Amino acid sequence: MSRKMSGIVVGLPIIFVSFLVSRCYSCTFTITNNCPQTIWPGTLAGSGSPQLPTTGLRLDPGQGVRVPTVPGWSGRIWARTGCKFDAFGLGSCQTGDCGGRLECNGIGATPPASLFEITLGRGNDKDFYDVSIVDGYNLPLVAAPRGVHGACNATGCASDINMGCPRELQVVGGDGGGGGVVACRSACEAFGLDQYCCSGEFANPTTCRPSFYSFIFKRACPRAYSYAFDDGTSTFTCKASDYAIVFCPNANGIRMSDGTVGTTSAAVIHKPNDGETVKMSSSSNIHLPIPMWILLFILNLSLKT
């Protein structure tokens, strides 16, 4: 065997291992609707990141969807409620609306909305992620990463803040408010004052301090961002292959006889341009590292500590 050929053969295992490592560091978002009502998740890429294969979709109770992403992706994911769209994908939502479209296409959520925010690392760099209610709250959600190297921390806001939302922050649904409280605004949105918005002379962590209203949010959801400079207890790092993003993790009424959460419906969303697909299925068919009911039980305990 020639020296050149020997070098090629020796190099093949290295290339193969490098391929496997790069594949391990690819990441997906597994979004699950555990709410008793239909939701419409939306996604928004940050500056310099491509939009995800879907920027808006419908999930009925128990449905889940896997969305692939790329290393270095940065952006946010949220859920809209009370939406009505026509055959062209035009309409509106009671909460989390993104320009009156099913596909958000680069438009962010109209506050108030609970947000999952993340910046994925490249190579060996870690991911940074959080759940934020700085822009208000509409639904409970938790985010549980599956680590490439060891365990990672779950985070989120599993409490129903709408039930204890101060009257001055309440967003009510239906004609004349007959639909009850559907979201809880931030003090910034409600009052527009610099000390609540961390703007103007309050645009730094020294002068912008927790308010009476952010304390309410923080007590209900100690791991979530409650105001702009709430970094110390709200930002987490990990190197994960998948993030399970579950809306209404503590909801009742849609458990199946085998203890899983979900329905039997399934669909496939085609990814534009390159033909890849996003698999939508019942959450009972989503392959998480542990069964869904165990995951939710663990998250419920951890978020209360």
Automatic annotation (TrEMBL):
Protein name: Thaumatin-like protein
Native source species: Manihot esculenta
Alphabetically ordered keywords of this record: Disulfide bond, Signal
Alphabetized PANTHER family for the sequence: OS03G0233200 PROTEIN
Xref: Pfam families: Thaumatin
Residues in the signal sequence: 1-26
Disulfide bonds listed in the record: C35-C248, C83-C93, C98-C104, C152-C238, C157-C221, C165-C184, C188-C197, C198-C208
Family: Belongs to the thaumatin family.
InterPro entries cross-referenced by the UniProt entry: Osmotin/thaumatin-like_sf, Thaumatin, Thaumatin_CS
Source species, domain of life: Eukaryota
Gene Ontology biological process terms, A to Z: defense response
SMART domains xref list: THN
